[in-house]
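Renewal narrative, Specific Aim 1. Our central claim is that a sequence can be written position by position from structural information alone. The example that follows is taken directly from our test logs and has not been curated for this report. It begins with the structure tokens describing the chain, in the order in which they were read.
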């Protein structure tokens, strides 16, 4: 079950609170080197300073502000019957 049903737009509005006078813009989007996972950097220029947040796409389809964990090598051994 997806516990993060919010779209990227919902998260941008939650974290950056854009308005007509301070719109947001996507400054960078690509895929990570390790794992080839998508990310988007969104920026809002406010009067005092600019704020940018990077959102990462996770395997369950959600967008979050922290990167997904890398898949690590794993070993298993079959159990005797």
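The sequence written for that structure reads:
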């Amino acid at each position: 079950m997806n516990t993060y049903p919010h779209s990227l737009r919902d998260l941008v509005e939650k974290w950056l609170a854009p308005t007509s006078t301070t719109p947001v813009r996507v400054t960078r989007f690509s895929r990570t080197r390790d794992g080839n996972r998508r990310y988007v950097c969104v920026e809002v220029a406010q009067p005092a300073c600019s704020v940018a947040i990077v959102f990462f796409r996770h395997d369950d389809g959600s967008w979050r502000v922290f990167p997904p964990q890398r898949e690590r090598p794993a070993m298993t051994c079959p159990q005797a019957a």
